[in-house]
Amino acid sequence: MIALLSGRLLDKAPSRIVIDVHGVGYDVQIPLSTFYGLGEAGAEVSLRVHTHVREDALALFGFGTRLELKLFEQLIGISGIGPRLALSVLSGIESVDLVRAVREGDVGRLTGIPGVGKKTAERIGLELKDRLQAVLEVDTDDPADSGVGSDTRGDLLSALLNLGYHRHLAERAVDAALAETDGTFEQILRQALKELAP
After folding, report:
1. Residue 159 maps to which CATH number?
2. Which single residue of 23, 69, 101, 174 could bond 63 by disulfide (Cβ 3.0 to 4.6 Å)?
3. Residue (of 151, 145, 197) closest to 173 by Cα position
């Protein structure tokens, strides 16, 4: 089973990328949140991977953060939710917002995700709520991460890119905010937005 891929970004599209790992190209399906966190073609990338095996296919699903990967794996464990719908869920809502919506039982927020109807949203809310503790128990001593707080950095960067900020400016603001404060995600995001204010 492939759990991690590190290499050069060969091709990039919103739903899939090709990573060149020592001359072998891996076709990896990704959510939009991961797409926004990637550099341009030719950049070095490292993604956590879920290897999905069926009798007629083998598919790789890649994620920029452990939280995304864990949420994906919990989503596909829910009856009626396959990998494609799980990717749509992660593309339609930020990971931290998904966790918040599940905790608060916000079915309306979940039905706002393209492809998710009321019954599916209720099922996600009900089944994920029981599994959230396992999802949120993140090992902070993971050597696969590029540095301390890289999950947080990736989530912050993704949030700013989704708000329309240019990647270069967003990266500078996130780095400055992380150096300034070590509070909650929301506090660091507020600080990053202050850094971007004219």
Report:
1. 1.10.8
2. 69
3. 197
Token readout for 116 is: 């998710």
Condensed to tens digits (0 to 9), the pLDDT of residues 43-64 reads: 999 999 999 988 888 999 999 8
Residue among 33, 47, 110 nearest 78 (CA): 110
pTM score, two decimals? 0.67
Q: By the 8 A CB rule, do 28 and 47 touch?
A: yes
> Could you tell me how far CA 69 lies from the centroid of its own chain?
7
| Residue-number span of the structural domain to which 82 is assigned | 67-136
Q: For the chain, what's the residue count?
A: 198
As a whole number of angstroms, the distance between CA 68 and CA 87 comes to 10
pLDDT tens, residue by residue, 145-192: 333 345 677 788 878 877 777 777 888 888 888 877 777 777 888 888
How would you class 18 by CB atoms within 10 Å of its CB: exposed for 0-12, middle for 13-18, buried for 19 or more?
Answer: middle
Are 91 and 32 in contact by the 8 Å Cβ rule? The answer is yes
Q: Are 82 and 50 in contact (CB under 8 A)?
A: no
- Is the same domain home to 81 and 47? no
- State how far the Cα of 102 lies from the Cα of 96, in Å rounded to an integer: 10
112: domain CATH number? 1.10.150.20
75 and 126 co-located in one domain: yes
